[in-house]
């Protein structure tokens, strides 16, 4: 299908997360984590560019930074014919800002309400044009076992970036911004706790999402794999590499995907994801406000205590347990 046909008629909106960019204290540690995860990092000077196996697109860049992880900026892809409309929106709302010093300086620049710089750049659509297909499976002859020997399991290698979830101190405000300025559309939410947004021109159930916290930051990146077995095998390969903290195996309610999250060295997560819902460019998704108990997962192990903690911008040491508990509700 040609890119120009994958459009919602009359809609001006970003079509992809072109790249997310963050910095960490130790680039060698980042390389070890993402290689173990199954990505293909490429070092360029003082940064790592993250690729998936067999795909030409760079999904993320990791820079050598300060004492803690820091979300630097997010780049969104737009259609060339929408550039002037976006420029006008940015100017009318007074949102423009200088290009981030770690960027290539191209495109349009603005800040979201949480202060994070955003780049809008004319680029090919890399969000999916259809629901992700399961990986092909070999037929098993009658009388033979279907599972491979443990010693013969190949490394799980994600196929593409599915979505990114960010912390925000004001989820409804971020939802309005994404709708009115970026042209994203609400998929589902739960009160003011979490919101999931998809691309108007077709994307997975969520291209980006926002979870309530005391400060902005990067919570997790989610990576598409070809089977539920890949989700489980991915978790196992990360345990073998020394990354045994996380959450899964489970199945989400909103988005419906099977998941396993792996805690990275900086307190955020990378997710193996399979079979997420897809929202086509010509579909009106019935967005709803779900009660918290119906918004996170259908089945799986209990949620780890640190899963919703923003380690990127920690609460002051004097913060009480009661205050932390309030943030988590």
Detailed description of the structure:
The chain is of the alpha+beta class. The protein has a single domain (11-128, 158-328), classed as 2,3-Dihydroxybiphenyl 1,2-Dioxygenase, domain 1. It is built from five helices and 18 strands. It has helices spanning 27-37, 83-93, 171-180, 228-240, 321-328; strands at 16-24, 40-44, 47-51, 58-64, 70-78, 108-111, 117-122, 160-168, 185-190, 194-198, 203-204, 208-212, 217-224, 246-252, 258-263, 269-274, 278-279, 297-299. The mean pLDDT is 93. InterPro entries: Glyas_Bleomycin-R_OHBP_Dase (IPR029068), Glyas_Fos-R_dOase_dom (IPR004360), VOC_core (IPR037523). This is VOC family protein. Residues 16-123, 160-275 form the VOC domain. Pfam families: Glyoxalase.
In the predicted model, the low-confidence regions spanning at least 5 consecutive residues are: none
Instruction: From the 3D structure, determine the CATH topology.
Output: 2,3-Dihydroxybiphenyl 1,2-Dioxygenase, domain 1
Mean pLDDT: 93
Strand content: 25-35%
Which structural class is indicated by helix and strand composition? alpha+beta
Please write the string of helix (H) and strand (E) elements.
Answer: EHEEEEHEEEHEEEEEHEEEEEH
| Radius of gyration over C-alpha positions, nearest whole angstrom | 19 Å
């Amino acid at each position: 299908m040609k890119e120009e046909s994958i459009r919602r008629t009359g809609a001006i909106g970003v079509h992809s997360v072109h790249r997310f960019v963050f910095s960490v204290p130790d680039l060698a540690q980042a390389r070890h984590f993402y290689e173990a995860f199954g990505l293909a990092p490429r070092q360029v000077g003082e940064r790592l560019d993250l690729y998936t196996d067999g795909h030409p697109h760079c999904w993320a860049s990791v820079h050598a930074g300060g004492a803690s992880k820091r979300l630097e900026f997010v780049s969104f892809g737009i259609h060339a014919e929408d550039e002037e409309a976006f420029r006008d929106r940015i100017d009318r709302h007074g949102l423009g800002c200088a290009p981030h010093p770690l960027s290539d300086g191209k495109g349009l620049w603005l800040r979201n309400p949480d202060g994070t710089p955003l780049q809008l750049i004319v680029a090919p659509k890399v969000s999916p044009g259809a629901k992700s297909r399961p990986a092909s499976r070999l037929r098993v002859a009658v009388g033979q076992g279907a599972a491979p020997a443990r010693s013969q399991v190949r490394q799980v290698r994600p196929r593409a970036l599915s979505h990114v979830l960010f912390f925000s101190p004001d989820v409804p405000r971020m939802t309005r911004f994404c709708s009115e300025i970026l042209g994203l559309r609400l998929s589902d939410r739960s009160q003011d706790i979490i919101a999931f947004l998809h691309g108007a021109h077709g994307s997975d159930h969520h291209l980006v999402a926002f979870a309530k916290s005391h400060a902005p930051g990067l919570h997790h990146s989610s990576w598409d794999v070809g089977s539920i077995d890949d989700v489980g095998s991915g978790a196992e390969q990360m345990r073998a590499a020394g990354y045994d903290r996380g959450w899964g195996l489970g199945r989400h309610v909103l988005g419906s995907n099977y998941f396993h999250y792996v805690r990275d060295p900086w307190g955020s997560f990378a997710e193996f994801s399979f079979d997420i819902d897809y929202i086509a460019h010509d579909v009106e998704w019935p967005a709803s406000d779900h009660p918290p108990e119906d918004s996170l997962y259908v089945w799986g192990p209990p949620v780890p205590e640190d899963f919703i903690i923003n380690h990127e911008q920690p609460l002051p040491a004097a913060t009480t347990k009661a205050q932390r508990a309030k943030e988590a509700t």
